[in-house]
Amino acid sequence: MPDTIEKVSIIVSKGSLEGIYPALIMANGARAEGIEANLFFTFFGLDAIHKERHEHIKLATVGNPGLHIPTMAGGLPGVSTVMTHYMNHKMEKLDIPSIPEFVEMIADTGCGMYACQASVDLFGMEKNDFIDQVQDIITVGEFYEIAAGGSIIFT
Amino acid sequence: MTTTTTVAGTTVDLDDEGFFTDPTQWNEDMAREMAAEEGIELTDRHWTVVRFTRNEYLQKGTGATVRMLGKASGVPVKELYQLFPKAPAKTAARIAGIPKPRGCI
Fold it and tell me: With contact defined as beta carbons under 8 Å apart, do A31 and A112 qualify?
C-alpha cells in the first residue's frame, strides 16, 4: 500500500442533511489536497443533486439519538423543519456553504459527479431532473471502472 | 521537522511539506522560484491569489482555503484549479511563504 491517498470515490446513499454533508466535505477536502475524487449518488443520496430537491434537504429528527431530543418530539409536525433551519443557520455562521452551492463548488474543483442508474430507474427520474454538474447516469459496473485504482468510501 | 534551505539565494526555514515556518523570511523572488519548481510561471492572476492568501494569514493567522479563495479572492474555483492544478490553496500558500492553511471547507 502506498503511504499517500491518490484517489477516492465517495458514495452518497442518504438524503438527509447529516447524510450528505460529510460526503461533500470529504470530496471537497480530497480535491483541496490534490487527491482525485468522484461522487456517486445512489438511493436517497440522489436528492443532493436533484434540481428541485437539493435546496430542501432536511435533518433527520426521527431515529437520530445524536440530536438528544425525545423520539416522540422528533416526529411532531414542523420539528424537522425547525431543526433544519437551526442547523443551517449555525452552518452559515461558520461559512459552510449550502448543499446546492457546495455541490456546484465541488464540481468546479474537478470532482466527478455521477448518478446511480438503478436508483434513477427505481425513482422514475431522468438526467433532466439533475443539476448540470452531473456528468452521467452510470451502472454499478461503470462505477467500479471509474473508481478503479482508488479507495471507495460509502456514506 | 524544519529544514534550512536556500531559496532565491537566501537561507530560509521550510517545514517537511515545503511551507515557510517564518513568513517574514519570504520575498517575491522566492515566490517566483518556488512557483517555477512547481512548474508554474506566475501571472497577475496567480499573484492575486498568492497576495490574498498571504494577507489572510497576516490578518487571521491562517491562509485561505479553496472555498475562501473562490469566494473572496476574485478568482473563481474553476480558475484556481487551472492556475494551481494540483492543490490550489496549499500551492498558493507555499508560494506565498506562509504555513499550510488549516480548515475543513
Answer: no
